[in-house]
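Retro notes
What went well: the complex prediction finally ran end to end.
Inputs used:
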Amino acid sequence: MNIFDQYLIRIKKILLDLSQKGMIELPNELEGITAEIPPPKFNCDISTNVAMVLSKINKKSPIELAETFVPLLKKDDDLIKQIDVIKPGFINIKFKPIFWTNFIKEIIKNSKTYGINTNEKKNNYLIEFVSANPTGPLHVGHCRGAILGDVIAKLLSFNKHKVTKEYYVNDYGNQIINFTKSVYLRVREIKFNEPFPKDNEDLYPGDYLINFANNIINSNKNMDFENFEKISNELTVLSTEEALKLIKINLNSLGIIHDNFVSEKKLVSNQEVQKVIDYLQKKNFIYKGKIKAPAGEDNDNWVEREQLLFKSTDFGDDKDRALQKSDGAWTYFASDVAYHKNKLDRKFDYLINILGADHAGYIKRISSSVEALSSSKVKLICKVSQLVKLIKDKKPFKMSKRKGDYITVDDLINEVGKDATRFIMLNRSSDAELDFDFDSVIEKSKDNPLYYVQYCYARISSIFRNLNIDFTSNIEIKDYNFEYSNDEINILKKISEWPKCIDTSINKLEPHRIPVYLYELASLFHSYWNLGKDNPEKRFINNEKKIDNQKLIFLKAISNVVKSGMDIVGVSTPEKM
RNA sequence: GCGCUUGUAGCUCAACUGGAUAGAGCGCCUGACUUCGGAUCAGGAGGUUCUGGGUUCGACUCCUAGCAGGCGCACCA
């Protein structure tokens, strides 16, 4: 029920008809022709650029061309009140009120599916996000990408695509060795009273390691904690398990649940890395060579080494990338290539990765590897979530792991709450840096757009409460013999944009459009609500304490869309606030 | 030095895959509560969309050359 698509299809049909009759020239592709939402000032419901797009190829002025389309559009369509041709060549369509009665009838009947693009092919998606190192709790920096990934997944699911949410666990490599050592030293601190070396930069200083150590000691009474060499493998497993447990709790408090956790270590031990290297070697994407130092930096201690390299420059990367360290261990990149081979083997239609801004430089090489592995058949879509700039006391707040003064997901949820965190982190484009003003979010929560949208839903719910009508049940209206006023049609128009909003959000993977849309819808609703102050006719509940059918489903239609939208964002819609 | 990315009202941000006279919130000014919930609403002021060129019927959007901020540029992950 996307009215813009419906009319676009109708327009294209008219064009093909005309072209068959030889009355018009068409380009090979009709892509540029659109049915759009007109700016509010034009007092129309749908506009199309068809005449302007076709003007050149037909050697006619857009206005002239538009005039020939108008009667054809009007023909056999008695829902159209008026069609205007405006300045540059737009064709503006205005519907009769009965159109909107039909419209609301349709979307109430299909309230569960309204907004879903039913014409679109349904695909199988894999989305990898968060994938933070299993060395400690999540902090605010992880939050934005986590929410971005989760909402993209929700969006795709809403549109009936199949989605698998995955977390890649980097439980292999130097970081993990350092992490395990750190846990071990905390164990020694507890058991043998040896102070933890605070000044060693390789170690993880956070106090949470004390908890990890305690948990490990308590549940492994028979372990020989005296001898690190003996227990290091087991301790690594136990330590990363502790960290993952904490990370999962953090994710949960954000409302995020992954379907799979894929272990890097397992990929290595299953020889999957070795296999993928062999595979790429056969395809000539791997050679032994040296990497040059980057220009313009102090490279005094740069050592050129001959090592195994992947030819990512074949795909536009600025240098080839190392796969193996000098001690023979695989680089992070090598096992990630194996991981992506693993993804490809599972036959998804699309692979999506959500990365933090600090890993943006990594995109070229990993997407190169996917191209090489899939013979360019599968494209890896990488979405970067830009940094969150924390503001505290009106000043930027720098997090420092070493000092331990960083804000964790826990802190954030406790102070701001899950819903506000999700809504605010999502309320703007992920391409732009985000100012997250801690104080203003906490203190002046009234200014929070989340509450503005929730309040709209709560107000509608309060009407149902006052009328003793079950808000959550479906409403059946038999008599649709009514027409909506201009104020109401304004809101219905906004509701008609909902499927378009979903479409664009998915096609561009820009979920921030959802909260932005919801805010606009809520704003129209609040305006309408306040009209009732001066004009009792505009109130929902009349003097007899009853409500007209047309107003009842009008409210229902609005609340349905708000609910769908808030579900996608992953925040609650309380009936009372 | 190179790569990626951002630059829109005083501040924080939108702008529907290139559409029309660029929109919101905050802040500032003026107004609306014996109300279906004021966590709301109505109105006002505020713009050379960083700069210069180009493509186009049409550019905040695309190309190009700059400027400014952010991120990255080892065998870290």
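What we learned: The longest strand of chain A covers residues 162-169.
What to try next: split runs per interface for comparison.
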